[in-house]
Amino acid sequence: MKNTSANGTDAALLELINQTDDKLSFVDRDYVYRAVNQAYVQLFNKPLDEIIGRPIWEIMGTDAFEKVAKPYLERAMRGEEIAYEAWFDFFSAKRTYMIVRYRPYIDPDGNVGGVYVTATDITERKRLEEEKAFYEQLMITQSRMARLGEMMAFIAHQWRGPLNTLSTYLLRFRMEFGDRFAHSHQNLLERSEKVLENMSEDIEELYRFYNQNDHNNDIRLKTSAEQAVSLLEHRLNAEKIRVDITIPEEFTLSYHQSHLLHIFTVFLENALEAFSRIERSDKRIGIDAYGDDHSLFIDISDNASGIDPAITSRLFEPGTSTKTVPGHGHGLYFVRKLLFEHLNGTLELLPACEGARFRLSIPKTSHA
């Protein structure tokens, strides 16, 4: 804490307090800092005299104070001891997850004169916990996808026979009665043959898509993007969102099928959430892929409300979200993590005239 005494014992106590990594402070009833330790000074990278005598919101930022700290401090000012943990989006310091404890100071008259604050930074531990939870959920999702794949591959295999039989029947009809059919019947026969042809192609596509083990395979990017859209089709239709996929048929990626599906789904989910907050008649999501001699690029864009400039600098940090519902804000963080760790790829937010635009860049050598 700030040293206000020349007493040797007080100086030793001050030195001891300044050795802790915990952020210690004392605020009065007006939420003004009256004392802080060295760890607190280092957190905000401000001189001591720029903290002491200033209200909390000027140091940590209005949002962090109003949305996180103030409700608990108000209870502490009424004499209640408080302990909680939360993410803090500081105005002039990096985003931090802390365990915070408030202990009221009771003056000689029995009134609360202020609050002692102890804040312990557990950001790295929290990130490790969230990563562990994410990968556990990812393993569950992969297991479900594998079981779904087995079922779909089985169905596709089982349907091949009946479709071939129906195709044979139509062929026999054409050979035996084709010349005697009326023009309208000829049209019905051609349409029936076309329906069977389309169904056979769809079945083969499903079989190829799902009949893969859960390890790196050459996955067609366009098929994976279409599958993600299909999974969210009812929500996209409800919001009247058009999804345009412009990916060359030959573009493939040697990667986990479920991971790639997860990546596309994250961006679609984020766009859906952004569109839900605005009124617009021409809602669009674009998924485009192209490449050069060295890299493969996937651009995913929308014309929704865009990204709040206040969070762009920490957009890919865990817990950063425009959603007010707890538990969000990890999708983009894990997308970037998956790209980097498995494909040596990158994820970036690009400037956009409207909405949001992201680019996934993957070196060709990483998936050749």
Oligomer: single chain
Helix content: 40-55%
> For the record, what CATH class of the largest domain applies?
Alpha Beta
CATH domain topology of the largest domain: Heat Shock Protein 90
Which CATH architecture of the largest domain would you pick? 2-Layer Sandwich
Give the number of helices.
10
Class from secondary-structure proportions: alpha+beta
Largest sheet: 5 strands, antiparallel
Query: How many domain units?
Result: 3
* Percent range for β-strand residues: 15-25%
Report the radius of gyration as a whole number of Å: 30 Å
CATH superfamily of the largest domain: Histidine kinase-like ATPase, C-terminal domain
Poorly predicted tracts of residues: 2-9, 324-328
Can you tell me about this structure?
With 368 residues, the protein is an alpha+beta fold. The chain has three domains: 8-121, 2-Layer Sandwich (Beta-Lactamase), CATH 3.30.450.20; 124-214, Helix Hairpins (Orthogonal Bundle), CATH 1.10.287; 215-368, Histidine kinase-like ATPase, C-terminal domain (Heat Shock Protein 90), CATH 3.30.565. It has helices at 8-18, 38-44, 56-60, 62-76, 123-177, 183-210, 221-231, 233-238, 257-275, 331-343, and strands at residues 23-28, 33-36, 82-88, 96-106, 112-121, 217-220, 241-246, 252-255, 283-291, 295-302, 346-350, 357-363. The chain has a five-stranded antiparallel sheet. A hairpin with a 7-residue loop joins strand 3 and strand 4 (96-106).
